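Sample intake sheet
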Amino acid sequence: MRRYEMITIIKADVAEDEINTILDRMEKIIQEENGEVLKVDKWGLRKLAYLIRKEQQGFYILTEYAGTPAAVNEIERIYKIDERILKYMTIKLQDVYIADEPSEDEDQEESDLEETETDSSEAEVPEAVATDSSEADVPEADAIDKAE
């Protein structure tokens, strides 16, 4: 199995139950191919950067899943036929998906936490700088007179 990420843009006039039907069908295809859906993130209705089929807005959905190339081909075949789908894009994130392995986002968060902990432990109080004893005995007013 491989790990994929798919962004789907659905027409703005599609009802919420139809969107759920589209997602359920996609999940069913993935599960039939022994895959699993990892995350479904509904971004909601957004303005498109450019017109797609004369539409100005679209409903964005980000889906992460583990599956086979056959599942990807079947999902894309169905999305090509479905007129409710404005656009979609599938990206392969990993060649081999291991279920227990943390995602790239989790790895980034862990490394950020480690850097923060390291930075706070390194922020120690600097040692006092030793000064020449002759400079320490001179009052500030005398130092100003000598500078002039």
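Comment: The longest strand covers residues 36-52. The domain at 2-94 is CATH 3.30.70.60 (Alpha-Beta Plaits).
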